[in-house]
TrEMBL record:
<dbReference type="Pfam" id="PF13326">
    <property type="entry name" value="PSII_Pbs27"/>
</dbReference>
<feature type="signal peptide">
    <location>
        <begin position="1"/>
        <end position="19"/>
    </location>
</feature>
<protein>
    <submittedName>
        <fullName>Possible Photosystem II Psb27 protein</fullName>
    </submittedName>
</protein>
<keyword id="KW-0934">Plastid</keyword>
<dbReference type="GO" id="GO:0010207">
    <property type="term" value="P:photosystem II assembly"/>
</dbReference>
<dbReference type="InterPro" id="IPR025585">
    <property type="entry name" value="PSII_Psb27"/>
</dbReference>
<dbReference type="GO" id="GO:0010206">
    <property type="term" value="P:photosystem II repair"/>
</dbReference>
<dbReference type="InterPro" id="IPR017488">
    <property type="entry name" value="PSII_Psb27_cyano_bac"/>
</dbReference>
<keyword id="KW-0732">Signal</keyword>
<dbReference type="InterPro" id="IPR038450">
    <property type="entry name" value="PSII_Psb27_sf"/>
</dbReference>
<dbReference type="GO" id="GO:0009523">
    <property type="term" value="C:photosystem II"/>
</dbReference>
Length: 130
């Protein structure tokens, strides 16, 4: 009896984890490509006009990207010590904090300016290999 329950649970977990890993994946698992992609997507989102009709959907996508990127690369020791990751992490934390605390408010100009600089710096650093 225990064996069949364990087998059923194992199969359920296998099916569930495989289904989630195939659906909605935005990242490739290649740190350089993912960093450039996330930085570019976030830059596009934060530079949308506040009254742009696509902004709410872009912000939802940005939140998902931030979460996926952070959960994928923060635990990786060979990545999380790089200056590109540190810069990227700073930008992601700032943007995620704004979305969590002030979801209905526009980004303040000073935060938008800082995010633009940090995201561009992170993308340039990762391409350089830093």
């Amino acid at each position: 009896m225990r064996g069949s329950i364990a087998l059923c649970l194992s199969l359920c977990l296998l099916v569930t984890s495989c289904g989630n890993s195939l659906d909605g994946k935005r990242l490739t698992g290649i740190y350089i490509d993912d960093t450039v992609t996330v930085a570019q997507n976030l830059l596009n989102t934060i530079n949308l006009a506040q009254d742009d009709a696509s902004r709410p959907e872009a912000e939802i996508e940005s939140r998902a990207l931030i979460s996926e990127y952070t959960s994928r690369y923060r635990p990786q020791g060979q990545v999380n010590g790089l200056s590109s990751f540190t810069t990227m992490q700073t930008a992601l934390n700032s943007l995620a904090g704004h979305y969590a605390s002030y979801a209905n408010r526009p980004l303040p100009d000073d935060l938008k300016e800082r995010l633009n600089k940090e995201l561009k710096k992170a993308a340039a650093s990762v391409v350089r290999g830093a």
